[in-house]
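Risk register update: the risk of archive-format incompatibility is retired. Evidence:
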Amino acid sequence: MLILLKSIKAVSSLEKIFIDSDVSDLTELKHFSMLKNEKKSFQIALDITDSEFINIDIASSLNDFLNISVVKNVPSDLAAPKRTDNFYIKKVPGLYPDLLLPVSEGCSFDSSGTFAFWIEISPSREKLLPSGNHNIVVTARTKSISYKTELSVEVIDALLPKQTLIYTNWIHTDCLMTYYGFKAFTDEYWEALRNYLNKAVKYGMNCVLTPIFTPPLDTEIGKERPTVQLVKINTAGNGAYSFDFSLLKKWISISKKCGIEYFELSHFFTQWGAKHAPKIEACVNGKEEKIFGWNTKATGIEYKHFLRQFAFALKSFLRKENLEDNVLVHVSDEPPFSCLMSYKKASRIIHHLFPEYKIIDAMSSYPLAKICNVRYPIPANDYIDSFIGKTEELWTYYCSAQSSKNVSNRFFSMPSVRNRILGYQMYKYSVKGFLHWGYNFYFSQYSRKPIDPYKVTDAVKAFASGDSFIVYPGDNFTPLNSLRLNVFYDGLQDMMALQLLETKIGKEAVVKLMEDSTDKPITFSEYPHNNSWLLENREKINQEIKKYI
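Archived output:
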């Protein structure tokens, strides 16, 4: 008899299961705990020899909270950049497990090999998990054979506290427009925004990049991205402007309903040095025209004159919306020290116009931040050491460049523990905000052309796969999860669990507990490189929380 299904095993969400993985080598997951409002995932690894349909049946008192997806493999041509450390699964092109495709009963697979189903336990605000011990019995079945595996879950009668971390992952609505084929600010545009924001909020994002002007991000010099300008502008002659904030008001309203709390205004100057104005369009003599852009000197009289009028009108609008404490302002993204003078001039303008607002920028040179009096710099996590203890608030980010020094990141080719550990690191160092640039960047580098994210995952060999997006575009303007999205949120939940325990025993005791089994103190580059430590440590944290129920 042809064996179609050879074996199954429950394993943790930290495993990355490749077609050539050996199920027998994977560590079996038998038990874990969670809090009543926490999301948790595990996987069912399967070794199959044919493409017959495989049914997945689950029997549990938690069935109402379970979502099932199949882990789909997606291609990577650039799995790792040239500069790396040794903490990668592999660094070669190929198929990597990443897309979580929802299924109701099961699915068939394209080839023989090892595959996985992803099971998420997901409570809601309206319906929390019932406390106590719960068994989950998973049966994988074909027409001719079935295998069963079982694990137990303890739901602890405690709640994760409200997330205090400000977390932004840049939504690029022009990428949605291009992929789905709709125009800016149509009904389809707003529907897609709702869907993508709802997903982002569900997995921890509480701050949204807000395109008051078309964001000057990853754009080839002299070229343009599709226009997504929320503020309508009219020229009134004699250098005077009037502003219509109705689209911005709608954006804010929709975002708030989705659960967004903070609004990160798009940058007032171009990326990598603040040498030019962003693309800004206005109605001139009844016709929409570009009034500023690559030909505009950043600190020229005309643009400064415009910014003074715009800032006055914008701040008045934000006051009426009661958003003054929830708005973040950008000057220019990732200015290098070589552009000190241009960035300093631009920064001075924005600090003068928005003195009452929190002004943030991704920058990894502490001398640059100090010289330019940047109160809220956002250093990359491989440069953060020089900022610790020297800024009013500590923020951090990572992107394609953070590929070595063992720092946290989310590439396909990295172990999931490297993605999740950030929660522990941010907790220990009291990080207030985290930024990532790629929630859904579906363009090639410099936005030269659109890509199909199911086929091209590295911005056409520019960024290691996994850097430029963390959700996939699904049907009906709805995003699909990646396993990296879920694992990153596990890290945020770790951070919240540590904060909860801190209210019981104090931070010093929490840090001591989380580092009790480590050889060295946890830093942004030093931490245990294995799944078992992270899983066991979180269990230890949960059991300590349980003592105070």
